[in-house]
């Protein structure tokens, strides 16, 4: 039933002769809704992509099954080996680490098998179930850290890596802001080359991926612009935010972020226009075709455009504002966590967190968009709920562990800038969603009343003219 629904949503009907295109656009959506009602299931994504070319084989193969019995047997066999045949250790620290790791792995295994599927199917639904369960583990770890003090939390990280837990100097990106230094005859552009580190490439790749997640030019540029303003606003707290003006606006905002957003949105357009026809690998005769199919397994199953339309309704506008605020808070957490937990920027933990946040964010933003756009969706998505809790918990850790830094008052000019931004946002919201509607509604009501009065006065004028004629 779901496969039939998906095929009808994309203009195809399954008959005895195979899949046939249904060119009658007027009959497509009513039939789709009839099947949805009969099965008590409404496929919002299928309706949204009903005019795109899409076909997938309805058969469920070995690769897509849960394998619950196989996983249970392997898990019990592993426990049997570790508890009976392996030599016991009397090292308390070693046993504690292994016990905690075993508990986490069991939770992840159970969650991957039995957690409901998310909105994404590629490369495999189990991968996104794993991300969801790992989000729970990460949030539990953050909550545990939140109830420690800063010194103990830093010391606990040394159990993961002995090199952690040591204070690290933060690099100052300000320094000399001369683009061309005539005093340095050997390399007058040395200030520019000093800023060209590995983080420039990370900025570009990061915004390319963020554009694939948000799928909206306006939101991407708004977040990019506001984060540069936040760096200006918080450079009195973190030296890492102290950068030259051209580093902020030319290298970061225009080049790295801007090019990443443009290429990301071009990628979104390509993925939106391309047809999706999925053929099982065993139905492909050539080895080159099978290899290509394996590579395509890591591409989207189908692509849904995100038409956020923030000014369409007050609910959409507030959700978009909240999404931008949480996005910016997650970006700030990256820098403040490194500062309060003494994590060096090149450390694998920092990179792992960024990749993990991107994976969670992809699913969370897809769920938030459906919650915004789908009138039948009444519940906040699981991954969106978890990611929101994670971002808030990370921020609370930063506030608790280094309150003297976080509570440093900003300069007066920063207070003025943010007061203007917030006031303009509130003022425009009130105008667009309240005052504008009241004014135009009043004008329309006045015009209707005048038209009604004119219609009512017309018979009286004709009667008066007749009396004068008589």
TrEMBL record:
Signal peptide span: none
Record's subcellular location: Endoplasmic reticulum membrane
Alphabetically ordered keywords of this record: Endoplasmic reticulum, Lipid biosynthesis, Lipid metabolism, Membrane, Phospholipid biosynthesis, Phospholipid metabolism, Transferase, Transmembrane, Transmembrane helix
Sections of the chain in a coiled coil: none
One GO biological process term: phosphatidylserine biosynthetic process
Enzyme class: transferase
Recorded GO MF terms: L-serine-phosphatidylethanolamine phosphatidyltransferase activity
Transmembrane regions: 62-84, 96-114, 126-147, 317-339, 351-372, 384-403, 415-435
The protein's Enzyme Commission number: 2.7.8.29
Highest taxon above the source species: Eukaryota
Compositionally biased residues, Polar residues: 7-23
Lipid metabolism in keyword set: yes
InterPro entries given in the database record: PSS
Catalysis: reaction(s): 1-(1Z-octadecenyl)-2-(5Z,8Z,11Z,14Z- eicosatetraenoyl)-sn-glycero-3-phosphoethanolamine + L-serine = 1-(1Z-octadecenyl)-2-(5Z,8Z,11Z,14Z-eicosatetraenoyl)-sn-glycero-3-phospho-L-serine + ethanolamine; a 1,2-diacyl-sn-glycero-3-phosphoethanolamine + L-serine = a 1,2-diacyl-sn-glycero-3-phospho-L-serine + ethanolamine; 1-octadecanoyl-2-(9Z-octadecenoyl)-sn-glycero-3-phosphoethanolamine + L-serine = 1-octadecanoyl-2-(9Z-octadecenoyl)-sn-glycero-3-phospho-L-serine + ethanolamine; 1-hexadecanoyl-2-(9Z-octadecenoyl)-sn-glycero-3-phosphoethanolamine + L-serine = 1-hexadecanoyl-2-(9Z-octadecenoyl)-sn-glycero-3-phospho-L-serine + ethanolamine
A UniProt-annotated Pfam family: PSS
Topology relative to the membrane: Multi-pass membrane protein
Stretch list, region Disordered: 1-26
Family membership: Belongs to the phosphatidyl serine synthase family.
Name by which UniProt lists this protein: Phosphatidylserine synthase
